[in-house]
Amino acid sequence: xxxxxxALTFELHxxxxxxxxxxxxxxxxxxxxxxxxxxxxxGDMLLGYExxxxxxxxxxxxIFFSGDDLPDLPWLSAGxxxxxxxSIYRNIDNALLGVHLxxxxxxxxxxxxxxxxxxxxxxxLQLSVALAVNASLLLLxxxxxxxxxxxxxxxRNELTRRHxxxxxxxxxxxxxxxxxxxxxxxxxxxxxxxxxxFHP
Length: 200
Fold this sequence. Notes:
Blueprint: E1 15-20, H1 27-35, E2 46-47, E3 50-51, H2 57-60, E4 63-66, H3 78-88, H4 94-103, H5 119-130, E5 137-141, H6 149-165, E6 169-174, E7 183-188, E8 194-199
Helix pairs in contact: 4-5
């Protein structure tokens, strides 16, 4: 049996943690494992001192994964999708969500079906929710993809601010430098990737 990730042993601390590596090295797989969307074939992951395999649903609400696209619910409008997120994640800061929606200029598209949104708008919508959830563990897969320059600057500034505050663990993946203050972890090797280095 081939393993995408093998022999990984590391700790993620409060602030921004950048998982760096080329396409195919297992970055997204690692985030999906941390999110609970995939289960490891062996080994364990701990959130604090508790195994993530047995986390109750209320604790799982403290983990938020933002991937490269929205859930496949094309019949919903952008605003309705936000309501769905709100029904799942009761710890969304609605005031902060409103701030991010305004900053990303999404207020005008809240009645638009998500299938009709541009790729950039879809990504901004998910980031707006991700940045408003009171998550202990925030997982951002290629968060700067498909964003215009203004949105990139907003995300960089917000993540840099959060890295300074050290109030949550933020893990982002990117094969190129996101230009964000972060601890850096290197993945390499594709199949059977190993975490090679940590750069404080």
